[in-house]
Each structure stands twice: as C-alpha cells, then as structure tokens.
Design goal:
4 helices
Length: about 100
C-alpha cells in the first residue's frame, strides 16, 4: 500500500513539473485559477488514501502511509488556498481604481 502511495506521489510530482514548465508565463495565472476546482479533487483523493491507510494501520509501514496521506492533505489544501488567493489578486488588477468591491 505504501509503495503505491509513493509511486502515485512521484508520478504526480513529475507530471506537475513537466506540465507547468511547458506553460508560458502569461497563461500561468489564468490556468491556475481555472484548475482550483480540480485541485479540490486532490484533497478528496488524499483524504481517501489517508482513510485507507488509517484503517489498515497494523505495523510501522502503514504508519508511513498515514503520514504521507496527512502530508498530501496539507499540501493540497495549501495549493487550493494559494490558487484562490492568486486568482483574487489577479482579478483585483482588472478593477477600476475607484472601485473598492
């Protein structure tokens, strides 16, 4: 189980780096704002993986799976919140100078 979680983590990290490095800088912020909902699915997957590891906790190897699952939840949450903050800042650049809302 832990080996599968590590494999998924390494594969996701590799694909993320490859995909983001191919996006021009002008499109990075709009692309990130459009994928915040999809990033929310990452949180659901991390919660499911952590729940599976918690129910199977019998030895030290499964505790590593729980730790990796909790780390995945934390990092995915940071990604979603950061994405929305950047989107809010980006949309703020299009407001008129007199508008406060």
């Amino acid at each position: 189980m832990t080996l599968l979680l590590v494999f998924v983590f390494v594969l996701a990290a590799y694909l993320g780096v490859e995909l983001i490095s191919k996006v021009p800088s002008q499109l990075h912020t709009p692309l990130m704002s459009g994928t915040n909902a999809i990033s929310g699915i990452t949180i659901v997957g991390a919660i499911a993986a952590t729940a599976a590891a918690v129910t199977a906790t019998q030895n030290a190897h499964d505790k590593i799976g729980v730790a990796l699952g909790v780390a995945a939840i934390v990092f995915a949450t940071i990604n979603v919140v950061g994405g929305y903050l950047v989107t809010d800042r980006m949309l703020g650049m299009f407001k008129k100078k007199g508008d406060k809302k």
